[in-house]
Specification:
Keywords: Coiled coil. Residues 58-85 form a coiled coil. By secondary structure, this protein is mainly α. The protein folds into two domains: 5-119, Up-down Bundle (Four Helix Bundle (Hemerythrin (Met), subunit A)); 126-204, no CATH class. 81% of the residues lie in helices and 2% in strands. It is built from five helices and two strands; from the N terminus they run ααααββα. The chain has a two-stranded antiparallel sheet. Strand 1 and strand 2 form a beta hairpin. Helix 1 runs antiparallel to helix 2 and helix 1 (5-55) runs antiparallel to helix 3. The radius of gyration is 42 Å and the shape is rod-shaped. It starts with a helix and ends with a helix.
Length: 208
Amino acid sequence: MNFSKKLTDKVAELKAQQEKYTTQYEGMRTHNEKVSAELIAAEQDLAVAIEALAEEPSEENRSKEKEARRRVAELRLEASGASERRDAVFRSKTAQITDMQNEILQLARKEIVANKTAKEGVALERIAAAKQEYLEAAKAYHDLLMVDGQEKFYDLAREIGVNGSTAKANEPGFHIYHPIYTDRGYGNNKYGIIELEVNRAWRRGEIQ
């Protein structure tokens, strides 16, 4: 069966949201890595500025050290908010995506149940018809060999007064061998049906 356009559109919308979230997450991760790298560099610059101020406490070095501290403070503040930003986006997007997933699954269940309701009767009738056809075909094969073969031969033998041993010596020798095994040394048994084959088809949807 094919799902409805409404459902496939919902799936497409969900995938777009998931892709958007992935893009946002990657963007935040890249940004956070950039901030982290900038913070490391700024802390190194601050260490240099502190050392320079200690060696020469000039107004210029004092200004550089002050600016370096300001830059480090800004980056530390931004870096400390990285996990908060990530968690906020995660909670928001996860809730949205989960709601969409549940909506899709409920809609899919409804459509699948409706499909079963509409088609199950026909499918079961097909099985019933196939079973009847198989049994009738098996009976026809039996009648071909045993009724129109063996029985007809012995009816004629009795009609013409042939004794049992003479009839036995000349009979066609037809026999019906019940097909017990699915696999034999010379290949699959294509005419018999056994429980294993039936279970495979019913329970696993497999035909071997």
